[in-house]
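Two proteins, back to back. First:
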Amino acid sequence: MKMKIMDVNLNYQRYGNIEGKTIVLLHGWGQNIDMMKPIGDRFTKDFDIVIFDLPGFGHSSEPKEFFSCYDYVELIHKALEELKVEKPIIIGHSFGGKLGLLYASKYETEKLVCLASPFCKEIQKVTMKAKLLKTLKKVPLLNKLEDFAKRHMGSTDYRNASGVMRNILVGHVNLDIKEDIKKIKCPTLLIWGTNDEAVSIERAYELEKLIKDAGLVVYEGCTHYAYLERLGQTISVLKSFLG
């Protein structure tokens, strides 16, 4: 199904028990609805399930201009108003979890689940790639090559993104939302893998402290996709949390 929100053709799926509370599932960067269906499909008996292809991914169109994370949240809120959803339960992975954090900091939210969700810039080791990009910026005759170097040496996410989505990705990666997070009042569950190289386990402990009512479940030896690596455990934990 599709709806037009903020000049974006937003693709979504809605299924399950329309009489139940609504679970809204938000996928990570470069992903789509399919990445969150393994969770949604297991809660159809008791819950109304809404999964979005976030703008720029899956079958949703790209924003025509730069979208900040706050713009994404505003779009999600407007879409939920269109669907007559109030006080949703939000479950988000990675980028989707960051949007969930922002949503819960601004709008009434029943419960929030964050699966390996970034909330500030990750400190990365300086690599040869980073050194080269830094050098290109300093040398006037070479700085024209900076975009080329980013396209061919940057992260997979960056290389795979179009122009506007690259700008959105950079904005997302550099956005620190710690002050927003402190406003979250709803019960929050965090699920993280100890071997997450995208958003380190240290961030999980930090996030738990920033939220007033938060609990952390740690999956030993799991990666950034811990929620799928131990899907059975994830479903059990979610059932206990959601009631």
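And the second protein:
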Amino acid sequence: MTEFEERTIDISGGIKMRYRRYPGGDMTPVICIHGLTRNASDFEDVAPLISARTQDRGRDVYVVSLRGRGTSDRDPNVHNYHPFVYRDDILALLDKEGIDAAIFVGTSLGGIVSMLVNEKAGDRVAGVVLNDIGPDLAPEGLARIAGYVGGSGSVDSIENAALAIRAINAVAFPDATDEDWLKFARRTFRQREDGAWELDYDPGIARPFNEGDHTPDLWAAFMSLTAKPTLLINGELSDLLTPAIVDKMRAAHPALLYCPVARVGHAPMLTEPESVRAIHSFLAAF
């Protein structure tokens, strides 16, 4: 696995947000932002592919763990678990790293944050890859997420953690192997000092979500991307980004590049062959 540097930034509310920097070179850098219940580990296979040097050129990749996830601090004020706050956290990271503009790769919630960054500070965004997310969210997908987000139970082994993750996500990854589910579990659980395994996020992220305070009106943010190179990656089995929503997005953003991923739901891992090809083709323009 490609080595990375673990870095820390102080963000609002006295919180420390941690992120990984994969050094690659002087091409336009990439910011990777994970989904609602995930963390920087989601990109441990993707980031090295993006940062890799080709013909002596490469690009730095920054992968965040948003507040309340992974190694970043948990926020005592759960109402700070909101896309507008995450947006400002990312802008603070750009300022700290001296990044004038970056390409954003956002999975689910990370795509929402990417759209909001572009809406507020378009000069900081060179292009965006939206992974299975759009300005509308299908109610069936939201209902499924609401059914598990905030779960605080623990299990006694990583194998049982894999079984728990599989129970929630098997519909989205029908071809995943036992090894895949173990990898998934290691990215989404952490082991406590007593040996038990628990989900690697603050259960408090569920409160804003379940109170309906998680989704601002995103159409203005999405429309701000019409002047930017934008790639949409869509799991063909997705229950959050349905064909009807994709059609609306493509009609509103005629230049939107589109990559469907077969036999995958919400959300593609971005290591699928079609995802890798689409991302590399997209990045070649920067």
